[in-house]
Each structure stands twice: as structure tokens, then as C-alpha cells.
Amino acid sequence: MTDRETPGRGRTPKAREIEPAAPESFGLTQVWWGDGKGKTTATLGMAFRAAGHGYRVHVLQFMKGGADSVEDVRGEYNAIAAMPGVSYENLGHYGWHAMNDGTEERDHEAEASAGFERAQRLVEAADEAELSTPFEHDADPEAGVHMLVLDEILYAADRGLVDPESVLELIDDKPDDLELVLSGSHTRPAYLIDAADLVTNVRKEKHPIEAGQRARKGTEY
């Protein structure tokens, strides 16, 4: 037994002004996959938590489509725009690859390729930056980020739009202090299990889509 006490010694945490800061123990590779709802939700929640401590976060979405009930705006983009320290890019377009939804397959392929090249550049930029120092909230992500979220990259890899071996190389190339978060895929990414530090399977037990519920504004987009 130790004499350690809980942080704050029982005091209720309160919000503080967000000032640029640098994390003390970032550097893991996280993988979020599964057939359940919540992979992007979880990773974006973590991005907001990191930004709340003043760390610089960038979210790169590879493809973020949906049914015809999804509007051409996503709530997370508006929230990110209002949150200091988080930025985003979407390198895909509405619609899903191989889903016969009216989008062009060659466009998906070109955008996934461009997205991966962008991810490589951001990892290279992080390697060139000093990640033990704070970054201004509105700094260009090419100046360096503490956390890089590659949303739906695993889905792109599943579809053959991104080479899984290239994803492994990206992990291998990342600087030690960069927290790299990969999400997507209903299929277990066996090729990533040994390379990742954290692997979470978001499992579905029940989903309203099975009862005919369409995507809802504020929960699915």
C-alpha cells in the first residue's frame, strides 16, 4: 500500500483557460476498428481532450460518406472550428467506395492516394519539429502536431485504396513523441496488431439502422 492520494484531493475539477502546451508522454500508435458505431466519435473525443490540455491536434479524414440522408456538413467540423488547437482536413468526398452510391470509384482512389501522401507529409513535418515544445493553436499543422488522427484510413486500406504495408511504414516512420491514431474498418486489421500500442474493437450489439433508422443529424453526422 502507498500513501498516494487522488489528484486534486477530492476537489471538483474546473475548466481552465487553454494555453499552448506540450504533452509529457505522447508517442503511442492507436488503432480503433470494429463494426460498432463510435470509432470516429471516440477518436474525436480524444482529440478534444488533448486540445483541452493545450496540445496541437490535426484530424485528417480519408473518406467520410454516408447515406442520402446525410447533409453536406458535419457537426464535428463546426465544433473543431470553434476549438483552439484542433484542425481538420477531409481528403475524400461524400459517398462510400464500392457502395454504388453514384460516386466515381476513380475519384475515391485518387483522393485516398492524395490523403495518404498528405499523411506522410504531416508525419515528416512532425519528425522535423520539436514535439516537446508547445505550438500555437492556429499554427499550420506542417509546423508540427502532437496528435495526428487519420480517420477512416483503415477503411481505405480494406478497400485497397491505401496499401496496408504503406500504413505500417508510416507507423515506423513516425517520430517517437507523435501520438498517431488510426480509425475505421469493420474487419480486424491483423497487419497492425503488433505495430500498434493500443487496439480497440468497437463492437456492435444493437444498432437502430437495423430497424430502419436513418443517419441522424447530431449523432451520426
TrEMBL record:
Residue ranges with Basic and acidic residues bias: 1-19
Class of the enzyme per the UniProt entry, highest EC level: transferase
GO annotation (BP), single: cobalamin biosynthetic process
Region (Disordered): 1-21
Keyword Transcription: no
This enzyme's EC code(s): 2.5.1.17
Keywords: Transferase
InterPro entries membership: CblAdoTrfase_CobA, P-loop_NTPase
UniProt keyword Nuclease present: no
Molecular function per GO: ATP binding; corrinoid adenosyltransferase activity
PANTHER family: CORRINOID ADENOSYLTRANSFERASE (PTHR46638)
Protein name according to UniProt: Cob(I)alamin adenosyltransferase
Species in which this protein is naturally found: Natronomonas moolapensis (strain DSM 18674 / CECT 7526 / JCM 14361 / 8.8.11)
